[in-house]
Amino acid sequence: MKTDVQVAGGAQRERLAHVDFRLFFLGEVSRADLLRRFDVAPAVATRDLARYRSLASNNIYFDGRSKTYRATEHFSPLFEHPLDRVLSALSKGFGDGLGGAASGLVPCEYPVPISRPAIETLAAVTRAISGRLVLSVSYVSSFSGSTEREIVPLALADNGLRWHVRAYDRRTFSFRDFVLTRIRSVRVVSGEPAPEESVAHDVQWSREVEMEIVPHPDFHRPELAELDYPMADGVLRIRARAALAGYVLRRWSVDCSEGHSLRGPEYRLWLSNRAVLEGVDSASIAPGYASGELSHG
Fold first, then answer.
1. How far apart are CA 52 and CA 55, in angstroms?
2. Closest of 184, 108, 112, 186 to residue 153, by C-alpha
3. Which of 59, 152, 159, 249 is the most exposed place for a label (fewest CB within 10 A)?
4. At a CB cut-off of 8 Å and minimum separation 6, what does 243 contact?
5. How far apart are CA 173 and CA 170, in angstroms?
6. Cβ distance 51 to 12 under 8 Å?
7. Would you state the pLDDT for residue 296?
8. Is the distance from CB of 295 to CB of 256 less than 8 angstroms?
9. Could you give the domains of the chain?
10. Helix (H) or strand (E) holding 33
11. Interior/surface letters 260-274, b for 16+ CB within 10 angstroms, e for the rest
């Protein structure tokens, strides 16, 4: 059956996935939903629904009273629906890059991001990543203050609170994270990046570490952590780039001290294999991981 779905053209496959999504998460779909979402002719929407029924007759039935197609009690999705995209669609609606306020599909509240980079800065950085360009930026650092730098942007990274750009910094001759909101001006510099400025030479970005996170030994209800996080046999294993590992641990308030000594209701998790952070530069921001334990280059 899934092979039949793959045979469909790209545009129709997207519309079939939308039908599958609405049936799975909303329990219903109508021809009008396809017309609004994809701006197709009514005949196209009708054919799409008929196509879906031919592929998965056990998933869908027509409710003549409401003129709506509904999910059966035996529904089984035809498509994979990644959780992050599902939650984004349910809370914010389907984005089409056309501006305007999108409305969620179900009532949902979520924290409003308060660190918002300028869209022009973001676009300049992503163009540089895509085109392998060198940028001259005016950047405000917490250590150096306002400086002018030439950087080679490599990738974007979200630490849960702020967006960064991972880049080679020609001022310090090293790979570093730059907070997008702290870039005050940007322009393209002529010339191509040198081979040693490519992501292939960024050891911290290329290296992956597997962190074993367990319920905090001093938390009085460890079973809650096992319910809140996808643990297997009491252990949550997370793989992350070494450049981002410290951000992950800080975001989830994971106690990284040797004797699980951090106290407070926020510390419900503990890093049990602390040795994995040896040589990880971002470990300097991991809760409870003493800076003296790091191996700096």
1. 5
2. 186
3. 159
4. 157, 166, 175, 177, 202, 204, 205, 281, 282
5. 5
6. yes
7. 32
8. no
9. 2-79 (1.10.10.10), 119-201 (2.30.30), 207-293 (no CATH)
10. helix 31-38
11. bebeeeebbbbbeeb
Report the pLDDT value the prediction gives residue 172, as an integer from 0 to 100.
96
| Eight-state DSSP code of residue 182 | G
Cα four-point dihedral sign 284, 290, 294, 296: positive
Supply the pLDDT for residue 297.
Answer: 29
- 228 three-state secondary structure: helix
Which parts of the chain sit beneath pLDDT 50? 1, 291-297
Element (H, E) at 122: helix 119-131
How far CA 3 is from CA of 13, 79, 182, 267, in Å, comes to: 12, 11, 48, 47
Check: CB of residue 225 under 8 Å from CB of residue 263.
no
DSSP assignment letter at 267:
-
| Nearest one of 134, 149, 144, 132 to 183, comparing CA atoms | 149
Q: Residue 185, Cβ neighbours under 10 Å: how many?
A: 12
Residues in the chain: 297
